[in-house]
Every structure is written in structure tokens, then in C-alpha cells.
Amino acid sequence: MPWPSRKRDKGVVADKKEPDAKIAKTEEETSDKEEEEKSTKPPAGSSKSGWKNWKKTKESDSGGEESKITYCHWLLKSEPESRLEKGVDVKFSIDDLKAQPNQTTCWDGVRNYQARNFLRAMKLGQQAFFYHSNCKEPGIVGIVKIVKEAYPDHTQFDQKDPHYDSTSRKENPKWSMVDVQFVRMTKRFIPLSEIKTHHLAHKADGGPLKNMMLFTRQRLSIQPLTQEEFDFILSLEEEKPH
Length: 242
Hints:
By secondary structure, the chain is α+β, with helices and mostly antiparallel strands. The protein has a domain at 71-233: ph1033 like domains (ph1033 like fold). 26% of the residues lie in helices and 24% in strands. It is built from 8 helices and 8 strands. The chain has helices at residues 12-17, 35-38, 51-62, 94-98, 113-121, 192-205, 213-216, 227-236, and strands spanning 71-78, 84-85, 88-89, 104-107, 127-132, 139-152, 176-191, 222-226. Strands 4-7-6-5-1-8 form a 6-stranded mixed sheet, sandwiched between helices. Strands 2-3 form a two-stranded antiparallel ribbon.
């Protein structure tokens, strides 16, 4: 039995207005109160953890060779606080995931073409950060893994679901979803404000978060991460919160 629709991609209205703009479309035109706009801007300056020290360690591990830029990890946004959408509560926190059978769920409700394409690019066993969004303090709370690659999202055909799409056909579904499974909580909560501090510093000194999509495509609820981005953020859980 499929789970209720929980994960939100607010680009559905805009996408339907301009169906031809599939790849370039993002959720930047939507009206949701994304946390990136609400967060207090940290000062641009040196990354407190010292990205250069992190880089030195990584180069030592890899012999100093530059890694080819590929997206092999992901960041998945979900709302941990109750919010009704067409009469349905879209709340789904990492604790809700942990409470599912086998701590596994389908990641449904994505209605943005670029986010959908990222879902379709996911490979079995790849890991993703579980990110609490649209809440008082957004940030990374845990790690999940892909346990089933992209397949048709059942909610697009359910007229009672907030993300029903009358233009999608079962013989040629527009929207996809994957299954994810809880791996572990991060050792500490890694807030958006802290990640943003590093992003601004890395934009100045060429660190791994300089082009992180969390800040260049803020509205997307499905975002790819390079190995370097994933590793750097993971290293933050070992540090004391600032």
C-alpha cells in the first residue's frame, strides 16, 4: 500500500503554466516561504573550520589529484512541521521516516521538472542528506540511501492527492519517485546558517561549497551534491556548533 504524499515540490503550478520549460525550470517562482530567504545572512569571511586544512587532508588522501566533478550524492528537502495543502498535512520529518516499516518510504509529490530529472538520475545505494526545510531552523538532520530507483509516482493519478496531475497519463507518466531508507542521524544538527557561512567563504577562496545548489537553486527540493560537497558537509558533524 502506498504511503500518503508527503514530500513537497512547490513548482507544480508554474510548471503547468510553462510545460515546455522542462529542464531550465526551477522552483524559484513559487510563493512558499523557503528558509534560505528567511535565514540571517552570515558574514562573509573565513570558514571557521578552515577549508584549507580540510583540503590539505583530502589531497593527502587522494595524492593531490583533482577529482572529476560528478554528482553522486543528494540533498532531499522535507517539511518537519505541520502544514495543510489542499486539506492534507504535508509534514514529514526524519522521525516520521524512522517510524515507517523498514524505515523506508517513497519520495513522492515532486512536481518540478528539474527536480524530477534529478530523481531519475539517482542510483541504487547512493546516499543523500535529509534536510528539514520550511521550518524555524532549517538544516541537515540525517542521512538516507536510495533503495529503489525512479519509477512512476502514484500520487499524480490520485485525484484526492494534493499533487494530482490531470495532464499525466499512465502510459506516459510525467512524474517519478524513488524509495529511500534511513541510514543514520548526523552526529549533530547542521543548520543552514552554518552551511551558508562556509559557502560564502568558499566563494572567495575556491572551496568545495562555492557552487552548492542549496544557494544557487534554493527552491529545488531535490538537489545533487558532488563528492567534495558531501564530504565537506559530513566533516562538519565532527565540529562543535558555532
